[in-house]
Design goal:
Length: about 200
């Protein structure tokens, strides 16, 4: 069989596989799924894209809290921990989230206890699809990016540079700039540094 025939068969098989992925995605949303796809897009990239779409639609939803617990981590309530215990637990959670490919930003306005409380009560409880993890997976959580008035004030007070603060913010009073009270963000795991293997893959 010539190389040209083999290549044509591979392309046909790949196209059939992509169409099967598209059908699987459509079954879950009960309608045609349509995305712009450039004709120049390589088949391998299209295949990877539709694999992610199908995995998203078919995945069960869970929380980071459940994933960490299933991976063997204990997550006591904040009030059950003294300051030393809480500090250790906070960094255990931060490292656990990084293994789940979830990365935190803009935490330096919060004390360790405030951050753990925010994680324990809010961030870890948010439901998300349980997607397969690989080295390209990443969920970025910025603690002042919700768009709420409170977060906008925190961003402008602590994180915005002078150029950003000089922009027109018609709905916001620009607060006086304050130095960040804590120095944590530069020590947080980043996407490039973190181990990608999930601590819960074996569960």
């Amino acid at each position: 069989m010539s190389k040209k025939i083999i290549k044509a068969k591979e392309n046909t098989d790949r196209q059939d596989y992509i169409q099967d992925l598209q059908r699987r995605a459509e079954e879950f949303v009960d309608r045609d799924v349509s995305f712009f796809e450039s004709e120049a897009m390589p088949q391998e990239v299209r295949e990877q894209f539709w694999e992610r779409v199908a995995a998203f639609e078919e995945s069960e939803w869970t929380t980071s809290f459940n994933q960490l617990v299933q991976g063997g981590m204990e997550l006591p309530a904040p009030e059950e921990l003294d300051d030393a215990q809480l500090s250790a637990k906070l960094w255990e959670v931060i490292r656990g989230l990084a293994m789940l490919r979830t990365f935190l930003y803009s935490t330096d306005h919060l004390s360790g206890r405030e951050l753990y409380e925010e994680l324990w009560h809010e961030v870890l409880r948010e439901e998300n699809p349980s997607m397969p993890l690989d080295e390209n997976s990443a969920c970025h959580i910025d603690l002042v990016s919700s768009g709420s008035e409170q977060d906008n004030v925190l961003y402008l007070r602590y994180y915005a540079d002078e150029e950003e603060r000089a922009k027109d913010w018609p709905d916001d009073v620009i607060p006086v700039h304050k130095a960040l009270p804590y120095d944590r963000d530069r020590h947080l795991p980043s996407r490039d540094q973190a181990e990608w293997q999930s601590c819960c893959q074996s569960s």
